Amino acid sequence: MTQIDLNGRAALVTGGAQGLGEGMAQALAGAGAKVVIADIQDERGAKVAETLGQAHGFVHLDVTNDESWAAAVAFAIEQLGGLDVVVNNAGAEITSLLVDLDPEQARKMLDVNVLGPALGIKHAFRVMRPGGAAGGGGGTIINIASVAATIAFPGISIYSATKSAVDRLTRVAAMESGKLGYGVRVNCIYPGLVPNQMGANLANDVARIGLFGSPEEAVGAVVGLTPSGRLASTEDIAAAVVFLASDKAGFINGVGLPVDGGMGM
Ligand SMILES: NC(=O)c1ccc[n+]([C@@H]2O[C@H](COP(=O)([O-])OP(=O)(O)OC[C@H]3O[C@@H](n4cnc5c(N)ncnc54)[C@H](O)[C@@H]3O)[C@@H](O)[C@H]2O)c1
Description:
8 helices; binds nicotinamide-adenine-dinucleotide; 46% helix
């Protein structure tokens, strides 16, 4: 079997201090890439970077902040000697019925899930395009949307809306990159529900607000809607990131890849 080889590639993963981002960072490093983890959780992020080894690093990044992005990308280029891959993975999910919508919580999700990746694309384009500080050789951006962008699951309206926005953002970004000759591929992934902290919180919350009898019932409903008959794993999602980051996906551009066992449409 041909292994995917990312030797010589430099990657920045947002939200890499835990959960899916941590798994993505491990998988990218396992395929040979050098990785910078970028997160608001300094201690945790630095620890994960340490487990990856000396060639890798951690940088504080608040994805909602323009200056923070500029500094993080500059750090990654300095630390890794370039930047070829940006994974816009950091995200936030706050469950609520629409009748109980809290504008502050909605704004938080819009900020982290939409503005965050948009700024990530901005700063990745600036350094990856011809003449850019990363060497100008182009690169690839992978945005993490969600199966929530492709289905109608109750209790996650704003989260779903932000993830649908990530989908459009991805396609327009790919068009701009192509039209302006940046040489950057931009794709997104729609992960299915993963039974990690965010997944467990979601199951608990939809039960708490009365949409399901229990968290287990909510998880059962998700599995019931999934042809593959199980939840997603961190490894499932990380493998798709490694693939999209590689030359094997060299002609895949401006698309959304469901990694959801068939749950989405
Ligand atoms: N867990 C799931 O079931 C699931 C399913 C589909 C999609 N997703 C998406 O996958 C991504 C990762 O999810 P996860 O399950 O690992 O979640 P998680 O909550 O475990 O991790 C999110 C990470 O993002 C970081 N983060 C949050 N706000 C940030 C900010 N402003 N700047 C920088 N970093 C910030 C957190 O510190 C954390 O390390 C998210 O975009 C999420 O929406 C998750």
